[in-house]
Specification:
Blueprint lengths: L1 H40 L3 H29 L1 H18 L6 H15 L2 H12 L4 H31 L1 H22 L25 H22 L1 H7 L5 H7 L2 H24 L3 H15 L1 H4 L7 H29 L2 H33 L2 H22 L5 H4 L1
Length: 406
Amino acid sequence: MALNRAAFRWGVVGLISLGTIINYLSRNTLAVLAPQLEATLHFGVREYSYVVAAFQLAYTVMQPVCGFVLDRLGLRVGFALFALLWSAAGLLHAAANSWQALAGLRGGLGASEASAVPAGMKAISEWFSGADRSEAVGWFNAGTSLGAMLAPPLTVGLTLAYGWRSAFVATGAMGVAWAALWFWLYRSPPSVPGAGTPHAARAGLVILGPRRFWALAVPRFLAEPAWQTFNFWTPIYLATERHWDLQHIALFAWAPFLAADLGGVASGYLSPALLRLFRFDLLKARTATVWIGAALMIAPACVALAGNAYGAIALLCVGGFAHQTISVTINTLSADLFPSRELGTANGWVGSAGWGGGLVFSLVIGQVVQKTGFGPLFACLGVFDLLGAIVLTTLLRGLAPVKEIA
């Protein structure tokens, strides 16, 4: 029975990682097709920025809402429902005939895809505890970068063979299939209270009160600008300041995301190792892992000092590794500090804080980069994460994991 339980819980990690890959395939398809869609649907860079902003804003606002719904409905029904919704939004992209239609559909996609991380963390919280939890989060989180890496070849291949609409149809269909698979296979452990009980979820705003929430939300707000910068601005940086053409960008711009995958997985094993080697308690081991990631973020802060574009890519790879080390650990801490019955809501609010920080920083980049260049902006990323580590250390002092709080 113990062996079957262990196998099932790692099967859950594989299942949510697969869902995350499909989630990121769906959201990245538009970015790959953007040049063709601008020509085909007759809009420009400004209109495209509105389409992207529609996704970002909806995703930011809806993370805590999705988490609350998951806490109320339970994971099996709730996550399947959200997967069907994001798949429907993705499929309808194929029928878009204007940038306004794309913006509306992108908002719907962001609103439903905001469920992915809260759902994944809630599932891991239900099936894993203590030091093992961070290992599971690391493997789950790998789906985010893997989906981003797979999107370009899959989207381009389908577009060349069947036209651009086929890419949206294919990723939408994958989501529908995954939703059915999730609903068929997933079950919560018997010890987890059922959805819809009086204690299944507290009112969303109540989550914002405890110090343990701000211990995670502030560092996530400070850390997320790095991930948004790597995703949305690295190709432009390589083209404008390193003078790379599209071929060079295509050949090398994926590398930081591979490093990010490695960082996410490695961080899952790092805090248990620190716990064993130095006899740290659980929260101190998590905090030390964040400090290691924050120290490594000094590398991308020095991108402007790199002698050539290859050196810059290498520093960005260290940044991808470092950021996912921090991100996985903060996500894991949300499961350490909040009970499963309210984890979806809590993790959603933490994620919303992070995306808020990323959105603000992206807007700042757009306003100042032509005057300052990218160097000072990349330098800010290293400072942000060191400040986040300080806040985390300060606010976690005296707290204990949720089982000791209860």
